[in-house]
What does this fold into?
Amino acid sequence: MSLDQEHGIGSNGRSNNGTPPPPISDGGKFQDAAAQLREAGRNLSFDAIIVRIGPMGIYQFIRIFLILYVFSTTVASHGLVNIFFASYPEFHCYVEEFESEPYMSYNDSVRYSLAYPINSISVMDNTQIVSSCSMYSPLLDINDTDTSEWDTEPCVNGYTYSTPGKGLYRYSVAMQWDIVCDDLWLGKLSQSLFMVGLMIGVLLCGTISDSFGRKPMLFILLGVQIVVSAVTAAMPNFYSFIICRLLIGTTTASVYLMMFTLAMELVSSEWRTSVGMACEAYFGIGIMLLAGIAYLVQEWRYLQLVISFLPFPLLFTWWIIPESPRWLMTKGRYNEAWVIIKKIASTNKRQIPDDIEEAFLEAMKAEDKHFPLADANEDTFSKTYTTLDLFRHKTLIIRTCILVFNWIVNSMVYYGLSLNSADLGGNIYINTTIAGAVEIPATVIAIFFLAKVGRKYTLAFLMIGAGVACISTVFFSSESTAWVAVTMAMLGKFAITATFAIIYVYSAELYPTVIRNIGVGFCSFMARIGSIVSPFIALLGSTVWVPLPFIIFGAFAITAGLLVFFLDETVNKPLPDTIEDIKKMKRALNPEPEDVDKIEVIMNPHTKAAPMLSTETSM
It folds into this structure.
C-alpha cells in the first residue's frame, strides 16, 4: 500500500470521499518521509552531475557535432537563399516591335538606342548605358537624332531578360514575377518578412520548449518546416510566396534555438562557450552548401524543393537525440532523466558516483509519490523577474542599451554583407562561398581571443574593424577593382561573424543569473530589427549608389564598437547572481572614500570558487 493510499489520499491529491485530506497525525512520520524525499531534489544539480559523468565526451560529441549542429547547416540555406531568389541579369522593357521589321534587321545596339533612353555613360569604355525601366513612346525612327523632347513610359508590357552569364543565377523569383524597377523593394520585403518570422519564432520558442520539451518540439517543428518549405515551391504568385517565407522564418528560428538549447544543456558550464561558438562554423558550412546547390540547381522552384528536403534525414535521428536531462529534472521527471544520465555515463566510460545514484533513487521515489521536490535555489531566486528588471538599475540600463544597439547592428551588418554579395560584382556563387568560408576561421579566432584578450576589447576592435572594412569598399567600386571590394567586404564579414559568436557569451556574462535568460532573450529579439531593415539598406545600392549600404553598415559598426568600451570586462571575473550583486560589484570598483576600507572579497556560492567584490556599508 502506498503512502497516499495509507492515508486515504486519492491520485488527485484529495481524500477518497472527494474532500481535502485531514491533517496527518502519525507522529510526524509522514511529514518526515516527504521532507526527506523533497530534500533529495536539493542534492541533484545537473551541472555537478555532468562534470562527473563526462562534461564533453563521446556521447555529447556524436549528438552535438555529428547530428544537432547539422540542423544549423540547413537553417543557413533558408536564411540566405534570397541571395539567389532576388538576383537577376541585365534586363530591359519588352518591346513587341523588335519582333518585326525593320527592327529585326538592326543589331542590339541600334535597337536599344531607338527604344530606350540613355541612362548614363560607362566610365570604363565610354559606351552608352540605356535605361532598364523605361522606353520611348512611340519608338524612335532610325533618322531621329533629337530625343530631348521624346515621351517615355514605364515598361507596360513587362520585361525581357538577357541570358544570365556564368556567374549569375539563371531563373529567380525576381525574374518570374518581374520584381525589378519600381517593384524592386518587394524582393527585399520577402527577406524582411522572413526575418519577421524569425522574430516570431524567437518569442514562441522559449514558451513551447519550456512547456513541452526540447526534443519533441524540435522534431515536430522541423517536420512543419519541411512541409511549408516544400509547399512554397508551388506558390502561384509572389504574395503567397512571401507569406510562406514568413512561416518558414518562424519555424526556422524555433528549430535553430531548440537545437542550440538542447546542445548547450548536454555539456557542462565550462564547455558551453566553445561548444556554443562552434555552431557558427556549421552555419558557414551551410552557406557554402547553399552556394553549391544553387550552382547545380538554377531554377528557383527546384532549388526551394532541394533545400526543403535537405533536413529530411534528420527526422530519423529521433531515436538518437535525447530529451534534455536538465529540462526533465526541472520538471521533476527524474525517472526519464536517470535513463539518459546512465546512457551518458556508459558511453563516456564513466562510473556514476554512489552519492548521485542514491540521490536519484530518492528523487525517483518522490516522483512516484507525486511529492514536489524543493528547488535548490528557491530561497534566493523565488522572485519572478520580467523584462522591466533590465531597466531598474543605472548599470543595467547602460548595459542593456549598449548591448541592444550592438545586437541590432551586428545582425544588420551580418545579413547585409551576406545578402549583398551579389552587388559586389564578380561571380555570385564564388562570393557566397567565400562569405560562408570566412565564418569557420572567424569562429576559431573568436574562441582564441575570448580567452587571451577578453570579451570587451575583442568585441570592440572586431566591430570597429568590420566597420572600417565595409567603408573601404567605397574606394574600389570600379569593375577593374571589384575583387578588392569583395576582399574588403569579406574581411568585414569575417570580423562581424566573430562578433556574432562573442556577443552571445558577453551578454550572458554581463547579466546576473536571475535575469540572464531574460536579458539575452531580449537582446536576441531586438536584433531582429537589424535583420529586418538590412535588406532595405542593401536596396540603396541598387537605387541610389552601390557603395552606400557599405558606408551605412560601416558607420553603425564603428559606433557600436566604440560604445563597447563603456562596458565592463568579464573574463576571469565572477558572474553576478542577483541584481544586488551588480550593485555591490560597481560599488567595489568605484567605492566612496569612506567605504574603501570596508571592501572585502567574498565567495559567490553559485560560481566555481570565484571571488566577488562586496561592499558593506553601515546603516
Notes: Strands lie at 91-93, 118-121, 128-130, 134-136, 152-154, 159-161, 599-603, 611-615.
